[in-house]
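# step 3/5: fold
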Amino acid sequence: MLTARWLSQSFVHWPYPPDEVQALLPDGLTVDVLRGAAWVGFTPFRMGSTKVFGLVPVPGQNFLETNLRTYVRLPNGRDGIWFLSIDVTDPLMLAARAIGAPYHLGDLRISRDGPLIHYAGDRRGGGPSYRLSVRIGAPVEAAEADVWLTSRWRSFTRQAGSIWETPVEHEPWPLAHGTILDVRETLTTHAGLTAPVGDPVMHYSPGVGPVRLGISRPTGLPARGR
């Protein structure tokens, strides 16, 4: 359905009590856990070379996106991403609201100064905002926990009373160490979570591509609750 490159991506993850995250999910999805915790990821990045069916360039095909997400499972054990919010600079992406993806228009920015990368975002019309500065470190050979936090092959949304599934394919993320120099955000509290505490887990990737997003389809599972 869509191909793109995901570039200059930072992954900032905080642990949360599983019950707190589960309260934000519709019935039919169960929060996934690692080391006894649910994890909420804050991931700003640049979308590049975005094309419909891998052929037709999307107008404004290079744009910025930031998502706030957690990790979930279906009753059959299939895992994936549940988006708590998605901020984007390209209004064409708002069309994905048709399958329940929580897109919002935002004024987002990325700048690079040697090993330092700076992200900033403000949702249009008021609401949450963020500032993140990261020092990029040396490449890292991904361990099991690194893969768990960064690599998922489907996302779930809710529309028309059902859980929908969108498949995703790409090469493994090339990951690097990252040191957070500054992070301020209100995305988590705006989504209904308590403010994160403690030091987050940080990864950086120069990017992957082509990323292939398949056609979204209903799973047949009802989506009741929040």
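# step 4/5: annotate
The radius of gyration is 17 Å.
# step 5/5: archive (pending)
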